[in-house]
Amino acid sequence: MSRNRELISKIGLRLDGRRPDELRRIRCKMGVFSQPDGSAYIEQGLTKVLAAVYGPHQVRSRQKAQHDACIINTQFSMAVFSTNERKKRPRGDRKSTEMSMHLQQALLSVIETDLYPWSQIDVYVEVLHADGGIYPACVNAATLAVIDAGIPIKEYVCACTASLGNNEVPMLDVSHQEEILGGPTLTVAALPMSGKIVLMEMSQRFHLDHLPKVLNKALEGCKDVKAILDEAVKNHVSEIGSATGWANTTS
Amino acid sequence: MSLSQAEKTFILHGVAENFRVDGRDREGYRPMELETDIVQHAFGSARLRLANTDVLVAVKIEVDTPLPEKPFEGKIEFFVDCSANATPDFEGRGGESLAVELANILSSAYESPLTFDLRKLCILKGKKCWKLYVDVLILECGGNLFDAVSLAVKAALHITQVPKIKAVNIDGDNVEIEVSDNIIDCDRLNVENLPVLVTVCKIGNHCIVDPSLTEEQCAVGSVVVAVSKECFSTITSIGTGSLHEETLFECLDLGHKVAIKLNQTLMAILVQIQPNQDVGFLK
Amino acid sequence: MFTTKCFIKKNKIGNFLKHVREHYIRDDISCGIPSCDDCNAEASSHLNEVHLNKCSLFKFEHFIILDTNVILDQMDVLEEPIICNVIILHTVYKEVKHRSLPIYKRLNAVLENPSRHFYIFVNDHHKDTFLPEDKNELINDHNDRCIRKATSWYMGHVPKRHFVLITDDAKNRQLALADNIPTCTITDYVKHLENNSILQDKLSRKDFHSEKEAKDIFPPHLSTAALLKGIKEGVLHQGTFRASKDNFLEGFVSVDGFTEPVLLQGRDGLNRSVDGDIVAVEVFKMENWVSPSEIVLEDEGVSEESIEDVEQKEQALKNTTVQEAEIKPTGRVVGIIRRKWKQYCGIIQGNSEGLYQIFVPANRSIPKVRIETRQAEFLKTQKLIVTIDSWPRSSRYPHGHFVRALGRIGSQDTENEVVLLEHDVPHSQFSEEVLSCLPKLPWIITEEDEKRRVDLRSIDICSVDPPGCTDIDDALHCRLIEEGKLEVGVHIADVSHFIRPGTAIDLEAASRATTVYLVGTRIDMVPGLLSSNLCSLRGGEDRFAFSCIWEMDLQANILSTRFHKSIIKSKSAMTYEEAQLTIDDQTKTDAIAESLRNLNKLAKILKKRRLENGALVLASTEVKILMDSETMEPLDVELKKMYQTNSMVEEFMLLANISVAQKILQEFPDCAMLRRHPTPPASNFDPLVKAGRHLGFDIQVDCGRNLADSLDRAVKPENPYLNTMLRMLATRCMLQAVYFPSGTLQKEDFYHYGLAVPLYTHFTSPIRRYADIIVHRLLAVICGSDSTYPDLLDKQKSSELCQNLNYRNRMAQYAGRASVAFNTHLFFKGKLNDEEGYILYVRKNALQILIPKYGLECTLYLVKKNETTLFEYDEEHQTQRAGDVVFHTFDPVTIRLQLDSSNIQHEKFSVLLVQPAIPGFSVPALSKDDEQVNDAEPVKKGKKRKNIAAKSPKKSKS
Question: What is the mean pLDDT of chain B?
C-alpha cells in the first residue's frame, strides 16, 4: 500500500488544482478522418484517444458470422510513445486484449446489433497519450465514433474513473499521477440516461463501506461526461448539416 | 481496394498527358499540413497530413551504452506502427509487413554518417550515449506513405529537445548524469542533411511522384529514393513489377530533383513553425 | 483555465523522462479577507478584522505576507501569538513542505489554530495571480515574482486594507519597492513591534554581524560539491560525529566500513561539529595517529572572546603521552554534510552581564551556545530550551536563540517538564479538536445502547486497584452456576466505544500510545473525562464494558469462553489491601466476599500451573515515593507491599489477555495485534550465571522452565534477600517485550518468554494503553458489535503503529525511571546517611551497590582517573581485591550516601565505603551525633501524606 500522500490538500484542492468532484477538461471532435466510416478524437485532461469505426460491412471470417445480430470487433492499441516509459509493443499483450474485450462489452450493450445480421462492425481505438483514465476515454471516443458512423445505438455509453482521496473523500476522474500515489481506483462504464452500469472494474483494495459513495460519484461523472459528449454531437451534426442545408429544417 | 480495368486506363492516360486524376502534373504534390509538438511528453513530435495520408511521429530519448565498436556514437532506432484506424486490414498483425518495410528503409536512409551524425549523441565516450527512438504511427493511408513519413520524421527531429547535460559523475563503473530540469534548456539537432524520401512510380511510360492510392495500384514499378544534400542515401524498389535500366535512371533523376525542392520547402517551413498545442486533431 | 507544466525527472533506471502535468486555473478561490464582498468569504478563513498588527514601521494596520525563507528560518518567532493575520501563499507553502518537513508540520499546527488567524491563499491556481514560468527564469526568481504579484493583487483587490510583504531577500525587497509594495525584513519588523523582547530573543541569527574584525578560530569548511567529490573519490569519508562527554576537545566519527571510529582532537580536528552531525573526515597518515586521551577536560570558557584557555588545553592534549596499544585512526573534519541540530535543554551560565549570554546544555556532549537575550536576569533562574542557528568561523561557540523557558531550576515541575521533553513524550494540553470528540454531558445510557449490549448490572462485580486509582480499567466477578462449575468474568472498560477510529482523539491517543507515570504527576493518554469518569468502572455506576466470561470447573480448567459487550454496575471499587482484608475476614459472607474468595482460589491454581509451565517470577526494586501533599516534596521512599490480591488480579488479567489473543489470531491471522517477548540470547545471562556460581548455585539458562526452576532452588535460608537479588539480575538480562502484527512473523516467534505462553496480547488496560484499544476493536468486529475500517486490517499500517507504540512505551519507561531518580535525589538532598547494601555487580573500576531499603542503586568508584588504585580486578571471577579484602557479587557492605549537587544539571550520589574497612580508602562510620544532623525520620504527624506509586526499573514482561 503506497504511502497516502495528501491527494486532497487542506484547502480542498487536488494536485492539479481541481476539486474532488470535478472532471478534467474534455475536448472532442468527430469526423477526424475521412476514410473510416466514423471517427472521433477525445482529450480527457492529457489523455488523448483516437477512435475509428468501419462498418457495418460483410464479416471477414464466415465462422464468426451470426444470423441474428452483427458482431462487433474491437481492437485496443496504445501508441508506443503514449506512456512515459516507451512501450515495446503497441498491442497484442494481455492488457490490450483485456481492454479490447471490455470495450466490446461496453459497446455490445448499446449498439442495436439485431439490425445488421451477418455483418461486422469494426471499432479501432488508438491511445496517443496515456495519463490516467484510459479506458473511459476509449469508451467515450468509441461512442462518438459510432455515432459519427451513423450506427444506431440505444443510448450513450459513458465511462469515468473515481477514487478515494485521503481515505475518505471520493475523487472523480483520476489522473495517472493520482493513480500511482493514491489508493484504489474504480472504473465504471454506464448508460447515464437509464442509470444502468455496463462495466465496473476496480484495482487494489476497497473497503466495502466506501464503495457506495465512490460508485455514486462515478455515476454522476458519467452523467456529466454524457452531457459534454451530447453537446459535441449536436455541434457536429449542425455543422455538417448546415453544409448540406438540412439544419434549416430542424430549427 | 481494387480498380477496374477502365479506371486503370483512365489513370494511365491522365499521366501520359501530364494531367492526373486530381488535376496535378506529374511532379506535383498534394497539399500538406505539418504540425509539431503534438505529443507533449515526447521530446519531439510532428504530424504530417498529405491529403488523406496522416502520419504521427514522436521522438523519445533514453540513456544507453554505445556499441563497443563505435564508442563515440549514439544510436537511433525506428519503429513504425500501422494503426488499424487506417484500414481494417491493419488489425492485429496485419500491417506488420508494411511497417517493417518502412522501418528498414528509414534505417538504411539514416545509416550514413553524412545524413545524421551520431557523434552528436555521445555523452561519455564508450560509456553513455543518447539513444533516439523515433516512433511512427500511421493513422490514415492515402498513398505515398514513404514521403509523408520521412518528412514527418525530419520535422520531429528538428523540433526535438535533447536535455542539456550539466554534470557527469564517474564513480568506477557507475556513471551518473545530471541534466538541467528545465526543458527549455536543451540542445537541438541539426536536420539539414536528414534524408527526404520520394516515391517515384512508373505508370505507363512516365514517372510520377506522390502517387495516390489508386495511382499506386496502376504502377508498373516503384522506386523509393532517399536524398540528402544532393546525394542519394538509399534506393529501394518497392511493390511488384520490374523496371528497365533507363527507366530506373529516369526515376532517379526525377526523384532527385523533386526531393531537393521538397527539402527546401520543408526547411523553410520548419524555421517559421511555432508549436501550437491547442489545435492538433481538434481543428 | 488550463495550462500544462513540463519538467524533466530522472526515473529509477537512470533514464530521463519528460513529465507533463496539468495545472488548472480557477476562479472560485476566495481571498480570505472577511470584509471582501467579491469573494464569498469561506468559513475556513481565520483572518480576523478585529486583530490589529501594530508595527511602528508602518502607519496602517495590515495583513502580513511572508516569504519562504522567513518561515524556514524564523519559525520560533512565528509561533508567538503576537504575529497574527498572516496570509500564507500556496507557492510558499509548497516550497516549505519541499524544503523542511518539520517546519512544515509546525506551520500546519499554526494554520489549524483559528486564534492565530493564518490563511492559505492558493495563488498558483487563481486566475489573477497565476504566472506562467518565463523561459530562462530560475525557479526562485519565478517564486519571488509570484509572491510579489499576489501581494499586488491583494492590494488592488481589497483597497481598504493594507498588506506588508516580509522577506529577508534584498533583491526581492528591491523589486517589491519598485512595485509599491510595503516591505521590510523580519528583524526590522520584530524590532518595531510592541512588547518585542521575547520575540527579539527568538529571532534566529542566520546572518550575524561581528562587531569587530574577528579572527578566524576554526579552519574553513569545504563546499558541499567538494565534499561529495571527495567522498566519491575515497579521499574523504562520511560518518556521524559523536562528542566525548569528558573531553570537550575530543570526539569520534563512526564511518561505515571502518572497524574503529576515527578519533578527532582539538579545534582543527573537531572543526565546529556538533554531536549527531553527519560530517566528512579526512584520515591522517598512520604515523600521525594518536590515542584517545585519558584526561578530563572541561570547557571552562566564560565568554566568547578569548580562546587562551582553549589553546592551553589543546597544548595539554598534545602533551599527553601516546599509548602505543591504544592508537586509533585519527583525522580531522573538513566539512559538514548535514547538521542535526535539535532543541537542547539547559541553563544560562551565570557570570556574565549584557546582551549575550552563554547557555550550557544539560547534555554534556553538546558545546555551549551563545544566545542573545534581553531577559537575562529572569532567564538565569530558569531551565531553558535553546536551539543552534549557526557556527561562524570566528566564534568560539555556536550561535543560537532562545526558544522557551521551562520553569524554575530545581523545581519539580520543571524537572518533570525536562524529563518529558528528553524522552519525547507528548504532553501538551489536549487540543480543541480532541476535546470536541468527547461525548457531551450528561451522559446517559440509551435504549439503543441497551439493545446492543448484554445487561450484567445485576451481577456482583467488583474492582480491585491500587489506592488512589481513578482510572479503573478492569473489574471481576465469580459465581457458582452449577455444581462444580464456576462462571468467571473479567470486564474491561469499553474505551473503543468512545474513541472512534480516525477521529482527532484517536490520532492523539495513537500518538501518545500510553499513559506516562511520573512521580507526582501522570500524563494521560486520553482526556480525563473518559479516563477517570465515563470509561472508568467506578463503583455504583452504570458503565459500558467489554466482557470476557469463562465457564470453569473448580480446578480452573476453562470449559468455554465467550466475549461480548456489556453494561455493568460495579458494586465496589476496592484497593488491594481492602480486598485482602475482605477475603481474610471470615465473618464476611456476602456475594462479593464469596466471589473474591473463589477468585483467589482459582488464581492460586492458575499461578501454580503457569509456574509449572516455566513462567518466570522476577523481581525488581519497585519503590513507592511518599509525597508531602502540600509541598510536593518526597517524604520517604519505601518498597511496595504486595498482597495476595495483587497476584489474583494479575492472574485473571493474564488469562484474559491469552484468551483474547487466541480469539483474534483465529479471526485475523494477518493483522492481529499481539505481544511477544523474545528469548534472550545466552550471552545475556553471563552475569547471572557467574553470580550464581559464586554463591554456589547452578543457574540453568537453556530454557525458561529450567531458569525458573533453578532460580527457585537458589535460596540461602540465612539470607532470603539473595534470592531476590538473583531474580533482579535475571530481570536485567531480559529483552524488551514488543507489540507486533501477527502477519509479520512466524508462529514460533509469537512466544512470550517471560510468561511462557505461545500467544499473548494486551487487552485489559485500554484506558492507558493504545494497543489495547486496537485489540478491543478487533474483538468487537468478531463479536459483531462494530464494523471494520481499512487501517485496522492493513498489515503495513499495523506494523507502523506497533513501531510507534514500542518506541513510546520504551520512552515512557525511561521517563518514569528518570523521574524516580530525580525524586530520589531530591529526597536525599541535604541528608548524610550510612546505609546497608549488597554488591550487585563488580566492574573494572567500580562496584554497583544496591540498597534494599530504598531500592536504590549507586556506584562506588574504586579507581579514579589518573590515580593509582588500591584494587586488583579479576575479570574471570568477577572480583576486586585490596589487601585481604575481596569483593564478590552479593557481598554485604555498608556505605555512606550523600547527594553531590556541585553541578546543578547533573546531580549524583557520592558514595564512600564504610564497611568492610580498607585503610586508605574507606571512611569511619558516622557517630550518633553526625546522624542527628540529618533526620531521616520521614513521618511528620499532622501532615497529610499522598502516596504516589512510581513504577521503577521493572522490565515489564506483561
Answer: 84
How far is Cα C401 from Cα C186, in angstroms, rounded to an integer? Answer: 15
Residues of B in contact with C9 (CB under 8 A): 181
Q: Does the domain at residues B5-272 carry the CATH identifier 3.30.230.70?
A: yes
Q: Which of C17, C18, C787 sits opposite A209 (nearest CB)?
A: C787
C14 touches chain B (CB under 8 A): yes
Long-range contacts of C180-188 (CB under 8 A, 24+ apart): C180/C152, C180/C155, C181/C148, C181/C151, C181/C152, C181/C155, C182/C58, C182/C62, C184/C57, C186/C70, C186/C74, C186/C77, C188/C57
B183 and C6 within 8 Å at the Cβ level: the answer is yes
- Chain B residue with the nearest C-alpha to that of A93: B92
Nearest to C488 by CA among C477, C499, C498: C477
Q: Which residues in A lie closer than 8 A to residue C19 (C-beta atoms)?
A: 84
**pLDDT at B31 exceeding the cut of 80:** yes
DSSP one-letter string for C689-738? HHHHHHHT-----SSHHHHHHHHHH---TT-THHHHHHHHHHHHHPPPPE
Chain B residues with a Cβ under 8 Å from any Cβ in chain A: 38-42, 45, 52, 54, 56, 58, 60, 62, 79, 81, 83-88, 91-93, 133, 135, 137, 139-142, 280-282
The class level of CATH for C2-202 reads: alpha beta
Best mutation target, C1, C18, C140, to test chain B (most B CBs within 10 A): C18
Residue whose cell numbers read 508595527 = C55
Domain C2-202 identical in fold to domain C343-409:
no
Q: Which residues of B touch C15 (CB under 8 A)?
A: 62-63
Q: Which residues contact B203 (CB under 8 A, 6 or more apart)?
A: B11, B12, B15, B211, B215, B218, B219, B220
Of the residues A5, A14, A16, the best mutation for testing chain C's interface (the one with the most C CB atoms within 10 Å of its CB) is A16
Contact B42 C18 (CB under 8 A): yes
pLDDT digits (tens, 9 = 90+) for C78-123: 887 777 788 888 888 888 888 888 788 888 878 877 777 788 888 8
Domain ranges of chain A: 19-241
**Ranges of chain C with pLDDT below 70:** 1-14, 37-59, 135, 205-215, 294-298, 300-307, 319-325, 350-352, 619-640, 863-869, 926-958
Min CA distance, A102 vs chain C (Å)?
28
The interface predicted TM-score of the complex, written ipTM, equals: 0.83
Distance from CA of C98 to the nearest CA of B (A): 16
Q: How many residues does chain A have?
A: 251
CATH top-level class of A19-241: alpha beta
Higher confidence at residue B22 or residue C354?
Answer: B22
Report CB contact under 8 Å: A77, B83.
yes
Cβ–Cβ gap A92/B41 under 8 Å: no
- The class that CATH gives domain C830-927 is mainly beta
B93/A36 touch (CB, cutoff 8 Å), yes or no? no
Residues 6+ apart with CB under 8 A from B190: B117, B120
Please state which architecture CATH assigns to domain C212-297+324-340: Beta Barrel (2.40)
The answer to whether the Cα torsion of C37, C38, C40, C44 is positive or negative is: negative
The strand ranges marked E within A151-212 are: 158-165, 169-172, 185-191, 196-202
Which of chain C's residues have a Cβ under 8 Å away from the Cβ of B277?
A: 4
So what CATH class is C343-409? mainly beta
Q: How far is CA B219 from CA A79, B2, B11, B235, in A?
A: 32, 13, 10, 17
Spell out the domain ranges in chain B.
5-272
Peptide bond into C220 cis (omega under 30): no
Domain boundaries in chain C? 2-202, 212-297+324-340, 343-409, 432-511+523-668, 681-734, 830-927
Tell me the whole-structure pTM to 2 decimals: 0.71
